Amino acid sequence: MNKVAVFRREHFNAAHRLHNPTLSDKENAILFGKCNNKNYHGHNYDLIVKVTGIPDPKTGYVIDMKILSDLISKEVLERFDHKNLNLDTTDFETLNPTAENIVIVIYNLLRDKIDNKLDLQIRLYETERNFVEYPS
Ligand code: NI
Fold first, then answer.
1. Most Cβ neighbours (<10 Å): which of 66, 97, 114, 129?
2. Which of 16, 19, 35, 43 is an active site residue?
3. 82-93 pLDDT, tens digit each
4. Distance, CA 77 to ligand 1 centroid (Å)?
Protein backbone atom coordinates (compact mmCIF):
# COMPACT_ATOMS: atom_id res chain seq x y z
CA MET A 1 0.00 0.00 0.00
CA ASN A 2 1.54 3.30 -1.10
CA LYS A 3 0.29 5.41 1.76
CA VAL A 4 1.57 8.97 1.86
CA ALA A 5 1.31 11.49 4.69
CA VAL A 6 0.55 15.10 3.76
CA PHE A 7 0.86 17.97 6.24
CA ARG A 8 -0.66 21.40 6.55
CA ARG A 9 0.77 23.91 9.02
CA GLU A 10 -1.48 26.64 10.41
CA HIS A 11 -1.24 29.18 13.17
CA PHE A 12 -3.55 30.85 15.65
CA ASN A 13 -3.27 33.09 18.67
CA ALA A 14 -5.49 32.52 21.65
CA ALA A 15 -5.76 33.32 25.33
CA HIS A 16 -6.56 30.88 28.08
CA ARG A 17 -6.51 30.16 31.76
CA LEU A 18 -5.88 26.72 33.21
CA HIS A 19 -8.05 26.31 36.26
CA ASN A 20 -9.92 23.53 37.98
CA PRO A 21 -12.88 25.04 39.87
CA THR A 22 -13.14 22.00 42.14
CA LEU A 23 -9.69 22.77 43.60
CA SER A 24 -8.58 25.56 45.92
CA ASP A 25 -6.84 28.67 44.59
CA LYS A 26 -3.64 27.45 46.17
CA GLU A 27 -3.85 24.02 44.56
CA ASN A 28 -4.63 25.63 41.20
CA ALA A 29 -1.62 27.92 41.54
CA ILE A 30 0.64 24.96 42.32
CA LEU A 31 -0.75 22.78 39.53
CA PHE A 32 -0.95 25.31 36.72
CA GLY A 33 1.63 27.98 37.67
CA LYS A 34 1.62 30.97 35.33
CA CYS A 35 -1.12 29.39 33.23
CA ASN A 36 -3.47 29.85 36.22
CA ASN A 37 -3.14 33.66 36.01
CA LYS A 38 -6.67 34.86 36.68
CA ASN A 39 -6.60 37.54 33.98
CA TYR A 40 -5.60 35.03 31.28
CA HIS A 41 -2.54 35.00 29.01
CA GLY A 42 -1.90 34.20 25.36
CA HIS A 43 -0.09 31.62 23.30
CA ASN A 44 0.95 31.50 19.66
CA TYR A 45 -0.27 28.06 18.73
CA ASP A 46 1.18 26.21 15.76
CA LEU A 47 -1.03 23.53 14.37
CA ILE A 48 0.11 20.72 12.11
CA VAL A 49 -2.56 18.60 10.49
CA LYS A 50 -1.37 15.28 9.09
CA VAL A 51 -3.53 13.31 6.67
CA THR A 52 -2.44 9.86 5.53
CA GLY A 53 -3.82 7.78 2.69
CA ILE A 54 -3.26 6.33 -0.75
CA PRO A 55 -3.03 8.97 -3.51
CA ASP A 56 -6.21 9.02 -5.56
CA PRO A 57 -5.49 7.47 -8.99
CA LYS A 58 -7.43 10.23 -10.74
CA THR A 59 -5.85 13.29 -9.06
CA GLY A 60 -2.66 11.94 -7.51
CA TYR A 61 -3.71 13.67 -4.28
CA VAL A 62 -4.18 12.13 -0.84
CA ILE A 63 -6.40 15.13 -0.15
CA ASP A 64 -6.78 18.40 -2.05
CA MET A 65 -4.68 20.82 0.05
CA LYS A 66 -6.97 23.73 -0.82
CA ILE A 67 -9.92 21.81 0.58
CA LEU A 68 -7.90 20.85 3.68
CA SER A 69 -6.72 24.43 4.19
CA ASP A 70 -10.26 25.82 3.84
CA LEU A 71 -11.54 23.19 6.26
CA ILE A 72 -8.96 24.07 8.92
CA SER A 73 -9.73 27.78 8.49
CA LYS A 74 -13.45 27.26 8.84
CA GLU A 75 -13.49 24.68 11.62
CA VAL A 76 -10.49 25.70 13.71
CA LEU A 77 -9.05 29.14 12.93
CA GLU A 78 -12.34 31.01 12.72
CA ARG A 79 -13.36 29.37 15.98
CA PHE A 80 -10.18 29.92 18.03
CA ASP A 81 -7.96 32.60 16.44
CA HIS A 82 -7.81 35.78 18.55
CA LYS A 83 -10.27 34.29 21.03
CA ASN A 84 -10.24 33.72 24.73
CA LEU A 85 -10.67 29.94 24.80
CA ASN A 86 -12.35 29.96 28.22
CA LEU A 87 -14.74 32.84 27.59
CA ASP A 88 -15.32 33.08 23.83
CA THR A 89 -15.82 29.43 22.91
CA THR A 90 -18.32 26.80 23.99
CA ASP A 91 -15.72 24.03 23.62
CA PHE A 92 -13.87 25.09 26.78
CA GLU A 93 -16.74 26.35 28.87
CA THR A 94 -16.25 23.42 31.22
CA LEU A 95 -13.16 21.77 29.73
CA ASN A 96 -9.74 22.98 30.90
CA PRO A 97 -8.00 24.40 27.78
CA THR A 98 -4.71 22.53 28.14
CA ALA A 99 -2.81 21.72 24.96
CA GLU A 100 -3.94 18.11 25.47
CA ASN A 101 -7.62 19.03 25.52
CA ILE A 102 -7.29 21.56 22.69
CA VAL A 103 -5.69 18.98 20.39
CA ILE A 104 -8.51 16.49 21.06
CA VAL A 105 -11.15 19.15 20.34
CA ILE A 106 -9.41 20.12 17.07
CA TYR A 107 -9.12 16.47 16.03
CA ASN A 108 -12.83 15.90 16.61
CA LEU A 109 -13.79 19.06 14.68
CA LEU A 110 -11.80 17.91 11.65
CA ARG A 111 -12.36 14.14 11.85
CA ASP A 112 -16.06 14.46 11.05
CA LYS A 113 -15.28 16.40 7.88
CA ILE A 114 -12.50 14.24 6.41
CA ASP A 115 -13.11 11.02 4.46
CA ASN A 116 -12.98 8.01 6.77
CA LYS A 117 -10.53 6.18 4.53
CA LEU A 118 -7.92 8.82 5.42
CA ASP A 119 -6.03 8.79 8.74
CA LEU A 120 -5.82 12.03 10.66
CA GLN A 121 -3.33 13.12 13.28
CA ILE A 122 -2.98 16.55 14.85
CA ARG A 123 0.11 18.11 16.40
CA LEU A 124 -0.27 21.29 18.41
CA TYR A 125 2.63 23.46 19.58
CA GLU A 126 1.81 25.62 22.58
CA THR A 127 5.39 26.87 22.73
CA GLU A 128 8.39 26.10 20.57
CA ARG A 129 9.37 23.34 22.96
CA ASN A 130 6.04 22.06 24.25
CA PHE A 131 3.78 20.22 21.87
CA VAL A 132 1.19 17.48 21.88
CA GLU A 133 -0.07 14.99 19.36
CA TYR A 134 -3.42 13.21 18.99
CA PRO A 135 -4.12 10.41 18.41
CA SER A 136 -0.84 9.40 20.05
NI1 NI B 1 -0.82 28.88 29.08
1. 97
2. 35
3. 999 999 999 999
4. 18
**82 catalytically annotated:** yes
Q: How far is the CA of 25 from the centre of ligand 1 (A)?
A: 17
Is 100 annotated in the active site? no
Query: Tell me, what DSSP letter sits at residue 94?
Result: S
| Residue 98 scores a pLDDT above 90 | yes
Nearest partner of 65 among 127, 9, 131, judged by Cα: 9
47-71 pLDDT, tens per residue? 999 999 999 999 999 999 999 999 9
- Residue 1: pLDDT band with limits 50, 70, 90: confident
Q: How far is the CA of 64 from the centre of ligand 1 (A)?
A: 33
17 Cα–ligand 1 center, Å: 6
Chain Cα centroid distance, residue 16:
14
- Extents of the domains making up the chain: 4-134
Is residue 135 reached through a cis peptide bond, with omega within 30 degrees of 0 on the bond before it?
Answer: yes
